[in-house]
Amino acid sequence: MSEPFVRRVAVTGLGAVSGFGTGKDALVAGIKAGRSGIGPIEQFDATGFDHTLAGEVRGFEPAAHLRRPGRWGRSGWFAATAAHEAVRDAGLGPGSLATARTASSFGTTNGESQVLERLAEQVAGRGPAAVSPELAGQADAGRIAAAVAAELGLTGETMTFGTACAAANYAIGYAFDLVRTGEADYALCGGADASNRATHAGFHRLGALAQDVPRPFDRDRDGIVTAEGGVALLLEPLDDALARGARVYAEVLGYGMTCDARHMTNPDAASIAECIRIAQRQAGIKPEEVDYVCAHGTGTRANEVAEVAAVREVFGARVPPISSVKSVLGHTMGAAAGFGALISCVAVDEGFLPPSATLREPDPELGPDLDCVPGVAREARVRVAQNHGFAFGGNNAVTLFGKVAA
Amino acid sequence: MTAVLELDGTRPDTAVADITGCGVLSAAGPGLAVLRGSGWRSPRPGAKPRMSLAALGRAGAPPRTPPDDPDWPPLALAPVAGFDPVETLGRRGIARLSRSEQLAMAACLAALDAVGEGSGVDRTGIVLGTSMGSARAVLDLLRDTFQQARPYLVNPSAFPSTMMVSAAGRAAIRTGLTGVNATVSGGPVAGLHALRYAGQALRNGHADRMLAGAVEELSPEAAWAWYHGKALAAGTPLAEGCAVFTLDAPGTAAGRPLGRILACETAFTADGPAAVSGLLARTVRTALARAGVTAADVTTVVPGAGGRRGWAAVEERALRAVFGAGSPPRLEITGTVGEVHAAGAALQLAAALADPGPDGGLALLTSVGTDGSAGCLVVDLPASLGEVP
Lengths: 406, 389
Hints:
The structure holds two protein chains of two kinds.
Chain A: E1 9-18, E2 21-22, H1 24-33, E3 39-40, E4 53-54, H2 74-89, H3 94-98, E5 102-107, H4 113-123, H5 133-136, H6 143-152, E6 158-161, H7 167-180, E7 186-193, H8 197-205, E8 229-237, H9 238-243, E9 250-259, H10 269-283, E10 292-294, H11 301-315, E11 322-323, H12 326-329, H13 336-350, E12 352-353, E13 378-379, E14 384-391, E15 395-402
Parallel strand pairs in A: 5-6, 5-7, 10-11, 10-14
Antiparallel strand pairs in A: 1-2, 1-8, 1-9, 3-4, 7-8, 9-15, 12-13, 14-15
Helix pairs in contact in A: 2-6, 7-13, 10-11
Chain B: E1 17-26, E2 29-30, E3 40-41, H1 53-57, E4 77-78, H2 85-89, H3 99-113, E5 124-130, H4 135-147, H5 166-175, E6 181-185, H6 190-203, E7 209-216, H7 220-228, E8 238-239, E9 241-248, E10 259-268, H8 273-291, E11 300-302, H9 311-323, E12 330-331, H10 334-337, H11 344-354, E13 361-368, E14 373-381
Parallel strand pairs in B: 4-8, 5-6, 5-7, 11-13
Antiparallel strand pairs in B: 1-2, 1-9, 1-10, 3-12, 7-9, 10-14, 13-14
Helix pairs in contact in B: 3-5, 6-11, 8-9
C-alpha cells in the first residue's frame, strides 16, 4: 500500500468548562495555583451517600453559550460550549469552520447520563411505560459530538467515543489522524461528562471514592472524587496555522492505544507500558525526549501502582516529572484525558509543570525519585508532554504533544 | 468498470478494508445465510417495506407480541433468534452480563472463528457501535439508587456493564485481543461510525486487523419510547441484533473476501430532515467518487431508515437525487431483522454480503439518524459462491 499523504497537526485553540468555571484561562489558573475545583454535590440529590463531594461545574447557564440548549443534555452542553471557546481561542471567525470540512470527535464515559437519570426516575415506581419518548430521544451518547457540530454549524464527520475514561484521548487521536491524512481540514476534539447519580453510586459501592479530596500519588490517598466538565481542542494543519499567524500551543506528535484484555476494572502495567511505547514510536520520539507525563492519576492505589510501574518500565532510571490534574479537578471521566491534553498543550506552550496539588507525602510503594510536582505549578521547559488516559474495559490511550520551534 | 470484486487485489490504495469474516446475530437467526433472499423490493417511491414474517419465524423465533406482559408495550418485537448465551459463552459469569455484552461477545467470537489466524492478538482490534450501551443495565442500576435503603447499595458486579465501553472490553477479554479497543455511539449510524473508525485504524497503522460492528438490545424502556413516540414504521417489529465483521487491510488477507469496503463516509447537519436528504445525497456522491465508481455501477441499495416512520422518505429523496429514474433495486432489511436501531448499519452490511447475487455487484448502504447524521458505505461484492457462512 502506498504511504498515505500526511501533514503535521497543530493545536491552535483550547476551550474548557470545568469546576473552575467556563473558559480555559480559569482552568489553567486554577490548576497552576493548585486550587480545588471540588465542592458539595448539587447535580443530584446526594442524600444518603457517605461521600457528598464532587468536582462540579457550578452555575452553568447553557443559554448564555448555546443557540438551542434544549436539544442537548448536560454533556452536550459542556462539549459544545468548550468547542465554542476553542474556536474563539484559535482566532477563527465563526464561518470559517462551517464552510470547511470540520470534524467533531468527542469522548465520554456515560454519555447523557443525566438524561438517563431522569428516565430512571420516570420509570422507578411507575414502570417502563412511564418513559418519555422526547427524553429518550436525547439519551444517545452520539449526540455529544452532534451537539458540537449543530451548535457550531458544522457539516463534517461526527464521532462520539464511549471508551470510558480514556475516551477523550481516543477522540483526540482520531481527530489527529483525520487532519493529518487530509480527511478533515479542521477537527474539534475532546470529551465531556456530567456529574450523575449512577457513576457516583457505582464508584461508591466499589469503595473507590475518596473521603474528601483526591490525593494522587499520596501515601494516604483513598480514592477518586467524581467530577464533570467538557474540554475541546481545535486541531488544524500546522502549515495552515503558521500561515495565518495563529498561536500554536503545541503539535500533536502521535498517539497509541492498547487493550489489557484481562480485567474490566483492574489496570495492567505491561499493557500500559506497551501503549506508551506505541505512542512514542508513532510520534517518532525517544523516552528521554519526554519532559512531562500528565498522569491518569486517579487517586486510587490500583491505578497508580500500575501506572508508575509502566512508566518506570518505559523510562528506566530517568522518569520525567509526572503529575495528576485530577488532584484539583476530580475525575471528570470521559473528559479527563481531554483536560490532561489541554494542560499538556499549555505546559508545552508556557513552560511549566502542572502540579499534583494535594500531594503531601509521596507513597513509598511507588518507589524513590519520583517527581510528582507537589503543591503548585513549577516553571520548566516542556518540549514533549505525554498524556495518559486509561479506562474500564482495560482500554489505554496515550497522546503526545510537542513544542513547535519558533 | 466491472462491479465485481477483482480477486487479484486491485484498487487496494483507495479501498477501505476487505471483509474476511463475520459474526451475525439477528431475529432471522445466526449467520448470513438466514438473511438471504427475503428483503428485495423495487425502488418505487414511497413503497412500504415488504414484511417478511416468514423470515422472522424461520429460525424458530416468531415476532413476539406480549399483550399480557405489562412491562412491554403492545408492539411486535423481534428478539435475536437461535442464540443461547450459556451454550455460546459458557455459564460462568453469564448472569452479570448485559444483553449487549452477550451479543457482542458472541458475534466477535464468531467473526474471529470465521477467519482463524491472520494477525497477532496485539495487532487485532475491536470497535463496536452502540447507542448508549445497555440501557437496561444503566436503568437497573439507577433504579437501585432510588429504591435501596442507601443510594449506593447498587450491585457492584453490575456496575461495569452500565458503561458503554463494557461490550467491547468484555469482547477483548473473551477473545484475548489486545489491540485498539474502541466504542463509538450514534443511533442508527453507529455501525457506519464503527466501520469508518476501523478503516481509519487500519489505514493509519493502529491495527492490522479489526473486528468492527454494532450491537443493539431490546429493553422495555426503549420499546415504550418507540411506542409512545409512534416512531416505528407500520408493520415493523422492534428488534435487537449484532453484526461484527473481520476487516483486513485491502489485499492483505489470504483467501477470498466476503466483500471489499471501497468507501465509508459520514456527515452531519442540524438543519432538519430536508437538509439530511441533501447531505446524504452529497455524502453518497463523495463516497462513490472515493470508491472510484459511478452511480451506474451500483447494483443494490440497502437503505437503513425503512423501519422508522418518516425517515424512509428522507433517505429515499436522497437516493432519487443520486440515481434519478434508473435506481437500482432495494434490499430492505427491516422485513427480515426488524428495526435494530444502533445495529442497523451493521446488519445492512450483513444483508448485502448475504445476497451478492450470482455475478456479484456493488452495494450502497445508506443511513440517517434523527439527530441529523447521515452516512453511507460502498461495498464491492464478489460473485456468489453458492453457500454463504
